[in-house]
Amino acid sequence: MGRGDGTGRLVSPEGADDDGTGILHVDMDAFYASVEVLDDPSLKGKPIIVGGFEGRGVVSSASYEARRFGVRSAMSVGQALRLCPTAITVRPHFERYVAVSQEVMRIFHDVTPLVEPLSIDEAFLDVRGARRLWGTPGQIARMLRQRVLDETGLTCSIGVAATKHVAKMASTISKPDGLLIVSEAETAAFLAPRSVRALWGIGPKSAEVLEARGIHTVADVLETPRAVLDRALGGAMGERIWHLARGVDARSVDTDHVEKSVGHEETFLTDIADPGVLRSEFRRLADRVGARLREHGWEARTIAIKVRFADFTTISRSQTLPEPTAVGQRIGEAALDLFASIERSLPVRLVGVRAEKLRAAGGGEPMLWDDDAEWRRVEGALDDATARFGRGAVTRATLIGGPRGGGSLPSHPKPPRMD
Asked: Does the annotation mark 14 as catalytic?
């Protein structure tokens, strides 16, 4: 299995067998860092950390030069700089990343309408119906890589396979700037030596459970009775792993992919103990989440918060609402109720607000009355002002003075809208 720093990568030679394939997984290489290099060529070839202010922020992305020192996404910038003292820290420019992502997704849609964006920098494509126009899946993948490079200046890695699961594994192994084709006939041989940790859905805890039973590779899974997998992982997960290990994945490319959550997090410049300040930050993040929900036409049934204390202890809480909402005021009230339930003995380093269990706005039963009608009007006016003058042009009086962190970023960046 290729590592996150690009060592151990595997790529297919020209003319590799692509019989029985048709699913592509395209993953942009170190996307945020690569866009920063695109905009500032002097950064090319240097270890780059894209993240907040030095020491306090979190790594959003890192160039492969930095990854070879052990730098990874989601670690603190302070830890990353200890691992790679020569790294250059660059603040994120999320709106720029969205704009570039739109260019990339447009290229995908030029090739096939069957595109399932997974995030801002990766997508599945079903190209089985595009053969007459563009050639075999392998040829389409090579053409896509060249187009992305020519039209955006960025590189991507592509896995080509008969199923989504194997295509995603192949793209990971080929990174960076690679192409790996796994024909239908080669699928079993490709999977057998892979770590169980490479199977989709196996997280660190599940992997530890399997490895404690001597199940380290996909080949080991194949030799393990189904009942043992069920006892170790539960019936649903056991069934999934049993099938994936055999190359069976019935999921199709879903063009109506619905996001599972929308969230924003803020890491503070200094740890904060003042509950009033923390409540204001929850309000700020809730308004950001509400605005994103409305922008995409979603409502959320569940609101969750995250609080990270000065000692890095992290607590999450969630609450299901009586009615789904995209109103920032309602999201903020739920977030503050959850925050009030947390016992705080240390200052706070990070807070986050997330909306979960999303559905299309207005998809439920009509209500006899709308308690949030006034707030909907107010926030609709704020949305209009943001569209005309930019974010932050109009805000709550309690939030004047700007955020106390390095600028909140989406906790799970979503693909851009393709209008």
From this structure: no
